[in-house]
């Protein structure tokens, strides 16, 4: 392996750009190419469901920095890959050869509209956020389909605008991610904040063309001016057809961010961790994982040990006017082991101890940096002699 | 290279300090200190500082020049 090998990163994303930066930092001096699908380049997505929905001025603050990468950037989506010939073809017909490939194409919003059914709103891109913001300006009512992080953030944005909102899901808000205890706390707070929640007994479907409502399995139909689907994401893997790299969950990786194909690595929302007998396959499409995996993929491309694990269990959300920051394993079973402060007052530090000595730490409405939360989540140090 | 910090937007996540501990630090209440306020980021810290700008989950950091 020589330092002059060419590295191709497909996906002008946080994971892709993080990988590029670490490749250079780790001494890669060979050609580096980034293929991006976004016409205007890479940008930060977490603010789309928060600051951007509130304020158009935020639109222009999201761009990611590519300075100093000494990379060729091609802004045309990848359409096919040939991992035997080691080449990727873009929509505008360019063919890019590589010695090592990093797949970082992220994910698209999952859509629930029937074929031909128009007007489904989702929130994944800046264009989605702009459209939703414009629609929020004159909506008198809203339905959000999906009570995960994104759904609850969108519902909170509706309430902040004075728009009555109903959230529909088969599980309680954030229950699949956080577990029953914290979900119950948040559900109660969301109700007080003005978010109406309807628990469906099965899959809901979008009604109307354009979409105007939601039909529940029991025959109930809810209608609103605005219906937003927040039903998760679908990894962007169409361009990998025929390579054997991807399946329904995305591109499977190991702890070195290596795929099953030699010379191909992957990072960010497009990936899932392959199960290893004790753990099942699992997706973890979170911001801090995109950073951690970008760094690991860069090291692996160069044959170097990763400077850190390919996973960083840090999550945060804004729900019902409150910020939650979480470090550690999820979901959380049962009540918190320790509570400092008051959940009722919206300011508490909660911890759940695990059998291996680690903890999951939740800053509930408290301003705490991730470093402090990680220190609390680490295995408790042995008592001083 | 100069960096601007939008302090009202900063929520104290601290992911910038993960990437560039010589450029950014946070206290226990998550108040951010930018170590090169009003001056240039020294050359040796620029790659890390750019990574930190990208890692900010609320887009509160921007490279000005």
Automatic annotation (TrEMBL), chain A:
Membrane-spanning intervals of the chain: none
Keywords: FAD, Flavoprotein, Oxidoreductase
Names of the cofactor(s): FAD
Domain FAD/NAD(P)-binding: 6-294
A single Gene Ontology CC term: cytoplasm
GO molecular function: oxidoreductase activity, acting on NAD(P)H
InterPro entries for this protein: FAD-oxidoreductase/Apoptosis, FAD/NAD-bd_sf, FAD/NAD-binding_dom
Pfam name, any one: Pyr_redox_2
Gene3D superfamilies: FAD/NAD(P)-binding domain
PANTHER family tied to this protein: APOPTOSIS-INDUCING FACTOR 1 (PTHR43557), RIESKE DOMAIN-CONTAINING PROTEIN-RELATED (PTHR43557:SF2)
Record's protein name: Ferredoxin reductase
Species whose genome carries this gene: Streptomyces pseudovenezuelae
Automatic annotation (TrEMBL), chain B:
Keywords: 3Fe-4S, Electron transport, Iron, Iron-sulfur, Metal-binding, Transport
Cofactor(s) the protein requires to work: [3Fe-4S] cluster
Superkingdom assignment: Bacteria
Keyword check for Iron-sulfur: yes
Domain (4Fe-4S ferredoxin-type) ranges: 1-29
InterPro entries reported in the protein's UniProt record: 3Fe4S_ferredoxin, 4Fe4S_Fe-S-bd, Fe-S_cluster_ET
Pfam family, one: Fer4_15
Record-level Gene Ontology MF annotations: 3 iron, 4 sulfur cluster binding; electron transfer activity; iron ion binding
Function statement: Ferredoxins are iron-sulfur proteins that transfer electrons in a wide variety of metabolic reactions.
Protein name in UniProt: Ferredoxin
Source species of the chain: Streptomyces pseudovenezuelae
């Amino acid at each position: 392996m020589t330092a002059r090998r060419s590295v191709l990163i497909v996906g002008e994303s946080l994971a892709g750009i993080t990988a590029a930066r670490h490749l250079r930092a780790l001494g890669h001096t060979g050609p580096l190419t980034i293929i991006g699908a976004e016409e205007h380049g890479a940008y930060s997505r977490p603010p789309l469901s928060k600051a951007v929905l509130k304020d158009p001025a935020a639109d222009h603050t999201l761009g990611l920095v590519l300075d100093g990468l000494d990379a060729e950037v091609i802004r045309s989506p990848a359409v096919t890959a040939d991992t035997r010939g080691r080449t990727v073809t873009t929509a505008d017909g360019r063919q890019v050869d590589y010695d090592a490939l990093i797949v970082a194409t992220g994910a698209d919003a999952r859509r629930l509209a029937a074929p031909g059914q128009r007007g489904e709103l989702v929130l994944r891109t800046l264009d989605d956020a702009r459209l939703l913001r414009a629609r929020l300006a004159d909506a008198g009512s809203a339905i959000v389909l999906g009570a995960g992080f994104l759904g609850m953030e969108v519902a909170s944005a509706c309430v902040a605008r004075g728009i009555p909102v109903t959230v529909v899901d088969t599980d309680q808000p954030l229950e699949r991610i956080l577990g029953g205890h914290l979900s119950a706390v948040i559900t109660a707070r969301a109700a007080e904040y003005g978010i109406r929640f309807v628990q469906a007994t099965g899959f809901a479907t979008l009604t109307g063309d354009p979409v105007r409502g939601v039909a529940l399995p029991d025959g109930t139909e809810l209608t609103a001016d605005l219906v937003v689907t927040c039903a998760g994401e679908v990894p962007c893997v169409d361009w990998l057809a025929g390579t054997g790299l991807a399946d329904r969950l995305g591109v499977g990786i190991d702890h070195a961010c290596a795929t099953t194909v030699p010379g191909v690595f992957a990072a960010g929302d497009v990936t899932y961790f392959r199960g290893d007998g004790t753990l099942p396959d699992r997706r973890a499409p979170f911001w801090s994982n995109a950073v951690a995996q970008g760094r690991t993929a860069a090291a692996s491309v160069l044959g170097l040990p990763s400077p850190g694990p390919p996973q960083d269990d840090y999550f945060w959300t804004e729900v019902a006017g409150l910020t939650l920051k979480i470090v550690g394993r999820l979901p959380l079973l049962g009540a918190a082991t320790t509570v400092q402060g008051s959940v009722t007052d919206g300011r508490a530090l909660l911890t759940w101890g695990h059998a291996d000595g680690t903890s999951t730490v939740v800053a509930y409405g408290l301003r705490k940096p991730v470093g402090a939360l990680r220190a609390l989540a680490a295995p408790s140090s042995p008592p001083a002699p | 290279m100069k960096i601007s910090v939008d302090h009202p937007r900063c929520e104290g996540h601290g992911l910038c300090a993960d990437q560039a501990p010589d450029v950014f630090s946070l206290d226990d209440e998550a108040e951010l200190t930018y170590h090169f306020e009003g001056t240039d980021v020294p050359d040796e810290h620029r790659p890390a500082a750019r990574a930190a700008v990208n890692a900010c989950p609320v887009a509160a950091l921007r490279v000005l020049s």
